[in-house]
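Progress note, project year one: complex with flavin mononucleotide.
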Amino acid sequence: MTLLHEYQNGTAYRREGLPAKDPHWQQGVGPFKSYAEGGARVLALQRPSTWPKADLWETLGARRSHRRFAEGPLAQQDLMLLLWAAQGITQPGPWPFRTAPSAGALYPVETYVCAARVEGIRPGVYHWELPEGRLALVAGRNDVSAAARSACLGQDMVSQAAATFVWSAVWARSGQKYGDRALRYVYLDAGHLAENLHLAATALGLGACMIGAFLDDAMNDLVGVDGDDEAVVYAACVGRPK
Ligand SMILES: Cc1cc2nc3c(=O)[nH]c(=O)nc-3n(C[C@H](O)[C@H](O)[C@H](O)COP(=O)(O)O)c2cc1C
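Model obtained:
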């Protein structure tokens, strides 16, 4: 039996009983992480006064992976729209709901932006902070493009992209309810929000490509997570298509 089969069988829900919960999972983990509270510099992103119009069916039909990007920058407004599409809050409240569904509304996925060429934004790694909807600077670095490319197994599209979005999982958020089965849900959650971003990019006339091929340690280092309690699960690069 491979590890995959062992995991799938070991976390299966069956009529005769659900898998026992592992008491090691930390309880009471909330859905937000904040660098701003730790003193990081913050950049407010303005919501548009009018939202761009797009036809859903045309957008679905036009979505394609783009791997060659023009040199121009990404508008700050477009960055905001992409982030909102992936993880915007659509129902505020004590436990806000978002644009993409999440198992148990636990929202285990964090979004980081490796901004290489975004109007008005110094190159570097940023964290998308919710519920405020702002960017917090994790690390200013002029070589962010090269570092992201290297972490993504040298994929050239990453160095051409204006921005690379990196999604990490805070395992305990989902694990506190679902135990080891959380792994299944975390990757599904990431897929939902990434597709939202891909469709938004298409609707805005931008190009995007999902990234599953990356060096885990290098990617975790890039966004400054430990790879244990929080680890990178997915990424996507975006730019003006060439
Ligand atoms: C989970 C996942 C991981 C992917 N990883 C990469 C990647 O690392 N590099 C890449 O060039 N494309 C990657 N892709 C894009 C696929 O190659 C692409 O979606 C597929 O060829 C279908 O083309 P389309 O997106 O234009 O429909 C990935 C797609 C998914 C869903």
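Helices lie at 3-10, 56-62, 76-87, 144-151, 156-160, 171-178, 182-203, 216-223.
Residues 64-65, 67, 155, 209-213 surround flavin mononucleotide (CB under 6 Å).
No further modelling is planned for this target in the current period.
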